[in-house]
Design goal:
This protein has 16 helices and 14 strands. It has helices at about 15-25, 35-45, 55-65, 75-80, 100-115, 135-145, 170-175, 185-200, 210-240, 245-255, 275-290, 295-320, 345-355, 365-375, 385-390, 405-415, and strands spanning about 5-10, 30-35, 70, 85, 120-125, 155-160, 180, 205-210, 325-330, 360, 380, 395, 415-420, 435-440. The strands form two sheets. The protein has an eight-stranded mixed β-sheet, sandwiched between helices. Strands 11-10-9-12-13-14 form a six-stranded parallel β-sheet. The radius of gyration is 24 Å and the shape is elongated. Bound molecules: uridine-5'-diphosphate-xylopyranose. The site of uridine-5'-diphosphate-xylopyranose has 19 residues, from helix 9.
């Protein structure tokens, strides 16, 4: 398969669309399939359905070069593609288990296409799925719907992704590792050739079996989440220990190559569409196979508790919350995204409302999504100045660059206030009537 390979990516969400555009940038022709017609129309007009740095520019290039072909029609897409990636969502259910309905649906539809295909088609699962899903659900559905046999008549691969929101394009362009979990030799070598053509011979490719590939994704995200819960535990201890500073500690332990500095930034707790869902999904999976994953449960418990560490800092320094005006800076679960899924900011807002606060929120990108969710329960500030003016307490939740100049703004517009910095992002000290409190520092 050469650089002009045509592949199909099913699911034009954050992972599917980013992957599609980067594949086209590297020479592939990509059919981008989604059953949401409006989304497909927008992509065809070169508009990203969500905010992700660099993505708009890249979609424009992919569409104008004719290499990205957005469509709602799975049949026409799969007609010419020998590799089909499944990138549909695997959301979390209320009870923490993984909702696999989209995986079920797509694998049945793909099976019908494979029934008609004359070529050897390789189906690659990229969605994050509990171990065993690719073999027990995807393979079964493909075989039943196609009347063909996996490994003989068509191929099956599990290839997890590691891209982060906010830096998804850069992560897709330079993956630190490409995992190919292959059900059989032939499909493994087809997909290895595809990735080598795209990313060059030096690409770091790991070939393994399907279930190990599924486990890699869960282990990877759970380890990172555990690192965050660990450093948040250290931060909470520091808050009770005069003189101790979590960032100095993180720098020191991070200098130990056995630990590493990344993902040791203490904060309000991890959010987003992956870590909370994947840790819970992994816990649920473990209990289904008769194992009690104590460490994962602790990671999750520490994370759920962290919003109360922030609340404690507010109450200790502000007194009773009832009737106070609280400005929340940042509702996105991290900077450079408009995503508020599982955002700790939103959880904090609910707690503050419960305690009778008047909440005013600001976010450079996520305000629309916040408004859709919280409606008129809070007020929305279109500028940082509007957010902080006359607030009794300002809480920095997301470390957007826009907040770097907050100190200057405060000295002009907020003469008497409490600032709680959950990310230790602001370069400020308590002065006059400005009281500065940082999570992880006494
Ligand atoms: C994550 C994984 O990093 C990525 O590999 C996977 O494919 C999808 O899930 P993402 O959720 O986009 O990516 O963001 P990430 O940068 O990992 O941050 C997740 C959460 O952890 C955010 O709420 C962030 O603020 C928090 N975090 C991260 C910390 O609190 N401290 C850190 O040191 C790092």
């Amino acid at each position: 398969m050469g650089k002009t390979a045509s592949v199909t990516i099913v699911g034009m969400g954050f992972v599917g669309l980013t992957t599609a555009t980067v594949f086209t940038e590297r020479g592939a022709f990509v059919y981008g399939v989604d059953n949401d017609a409006e989304k497909i129309r927008n992509i065809a007009k070169a508009k990203a359905p969500f905010f992700e740095p660099e993505l708009d520019k890249l979609i424009k290039k992919s569409i104008s070069s004719g290499k990205l072909m957005p469509t709602t029609d799975l049949s026409s897409a799969t007609k010419t593609s020998s590799i089909v990636f499944i990138c549909v969502g695997t959301p979390m259910r209320e009870n923490g288990s993984v909702n696999l309905e989209f995986i079920e649906k797509v694998s049945k539809c793909l099976g019908k296409e494979i029934a008609r295909a004359r070529r050897y088609v390789v189906v690659c699962v990229k969605s994050t799925v509990p171990p065993g899903t690719t073999e027990n659900i995807v393979k079964k559905n493909l075989e039943t719907a196609s009347g063909k046999i996996a490994g003989k008549d068509f191929g099956l691969i599990m290839t997890p992704e590691f891209l982060r929101e906010g830096s998804a394009v850069a992560d897709s362009r330079n993956p630190h590792l490409i995992v190919i979990g292959a059900g059989d030799k032939k499909s493994g070598s087809i997909v290895r050739r595809f990735f080598s053509d795209l990313y060059g011979r030096k690409a770091n490719i790991l070939e393994t079996n399907i279930v190990t590939a599924e486990m890699i994704k869960y282990a990877n995200n759970s380890f990172l989440a555990t690192k965050i819960s660990f450093i948040n535990t250290v931060a909470n201890i520091c808050n009770r220990l005069p003189g101790a500073d979590v960032d100095v500690i993180a720098g020191a332990i991070g200098a130990d190559p056995r630990i590493g500095r990344l993902f040791l930034a203490a904060g309000p707790g991890y959010g987003g569409s992956c870590f909370p869902k994947d840790v819970m999904g992994f816990i649920d999976f473990c209990s289904n196979i008769g194992y009690d994953p104590l460490l994962l449960k602790a990671t999750d418990a520490v994370n759920r508790q962290q919003v109360f560490s922030v609340l404690k800092l507010i109450e200790e320094n502000l007194g009773p919350i009832e009737g106070k005006t609280v400005a929340i800076l940042g509702t996105a679960f991290k900077r450079n995204t408009d995503d508020i899924r599982e955002s700790v900011s939103i959880k904090l807002i609910h707690e503050l409302l419960e305690k009778g606060a008047r909440v005013r929120a600001h976010d450079p990108m996520a305000l629309e999504n916040t408004r859709k969710l919280l409606k008129d329960a809070i007020s929305y500030a279109s500028s940082v100045v509007d957010a902080v003016k006359d607030a009794d307490c300002i809480i920095l939740m997301t470390d957007w660059d826009d907040y770097k100049t907050l100190v200057r703004t405060l000295s002009k517009y907020a003469k008497r206030t409490l600032v709680i910095d959950t990310r230790r992002f602001l370069k400020m000290k308590s002065t006059g009537n400005l009281h500065y409190v940082a999570l992880g520092r006494p």
